[in-house]
Amino acid sequence: MIATVILCMPLIWLANNYFVLERAFDNMIDGDETNIALAASKQEGFSSDKRQTIRPFSVLLLGVDEREHDVGRSDTMIVLTVNPALGTMKMLSIPRDTRAEIVGLGTVEKINHAYAHGGVDMARATVENFLQMPIDFYVKVNMEGFLHVIDTFDGVTIHNDLALTYKEYDFAEGAIALTGEEALIYSRIRYEDPRGDFGRQTRQRLLLQAILAEAQQPANVLLKLDDLIGTLGESIRMNFTKEQLMTLLMHYPSFEKDIEQLQLQKGTGQTIDGLWYYIVDENELYDVQQTLQQHLDAT
């Protein structure tokens, strides 16, 4: 009898947490019918059969600074292309001050203004136009809330490539352990880093890889699932369907060790009408566009 109970415990745990996962997904998934339809149109590429390959897809990750009585600001704009067949991911952090056409508004401004003007839809359309490629999915993240995931994991360790100081925070070069609060500060530093926005992009990649690495540890996820799901449910909105999310969780390989970071770093700074902009190098932009498009087309 005792043996039967012990054998049944994992099944009970899985059944219970399946419904916990479903509730969390319900909270995270955007209820807008247009966004759901766009995600559903990609459903055929997400097979639950391991023998079938999930086709490559793109994701726009928006790190948003939420504000009361305001749509907020997209502090971070990252485009990911994922190729499951190759087991690779390419990551482009778009400098927030990049001068670009804001699609749907008819203006040329800093690209991160698109979200403030028109939310996710305008941000996605603007990035699609900027990179000349389709954005299949989006994930909008309240950065302050999301980095609480790090506290759920009891912190993360990264290899910091440059010693930095911001107010009372000192981030030494080398291996450093970060709490969620420290990670938030670390991810936002700009002016104290001589590399400017490019240094911030590197630090965001390090944090993303660290969080993915922690999430790959079964003990971390299973023992802290309730807290983890609660934090994610409050901090994330996306247009993946529940079926797609479950497929990703069940069948995706680990990508955290094979993320190639692309950069737009050959541009120049220019002040226009009293505002500083980052003007991308057109040749470099074209090369990045081609790299992302080819990654999506590769089989």
Task: Describe this protein's structure.
The chain has about 300 residues and is of the alpha+beta class. It has one domain (about 1-295): LCP protein (Aminopeptidase, 3-Layer(aba) Sandwich). It contains eleven helices and 14 strands. The strands form five sheets. A six-stranded mixed β-sheet has the order 11-6-1-2-3-12, sandwiched between helices. A two-stranded antiparallel sheet has the order 4-5. Strands 7-10 form a two-stranded antiparallel ribbon. β2 (about 70-85) and β3 (about 90-95) form a beta hairpin. The longest helix has 27 residues, at about 1-30. It is globular and about 50 Å long. This is Cell envelope-related transcriptional attenuator domain-containing protein. InterPro entries: LytR/CpsA/Psr_CW_biosynth, LytR_CpsA_psr. Pfam families: LytR_cpsA_psr (PF03816).
SSE layout:
Layout: H1 2-28, H2 33-40, E1 57-67, E2 70-83, E3 88-93, E4 99-102, E5 107-110, H3 113-131, E6 137-142, H4 143-146, H5 148-152, E7 156-160, E8 164-166, E9 169-171, E10 174-178, H6 180-188, H7 197-215, H8 218-223, H9 225-235, E11 236-238, H10 242-251, E12 259-262, E13 268-272, E14 275-279, H11 282-297
Parallel strand pairs: 1-6, 3-12
Antiparallel strand pairs: 1-2, 2-3, 4-5, 6-11, 7-10, 8-9, 13-14
Helix pairs in contact: 1-9, 6-7
Domain Cell envelope-related transcriptional attenuator: 73-216
Family: Belongs to the LytR/CpsA/Psr (LCP) family.
InterPro entries: LytR/CpsA/Psr_CW_biosynth, LytR_CpsA_psr
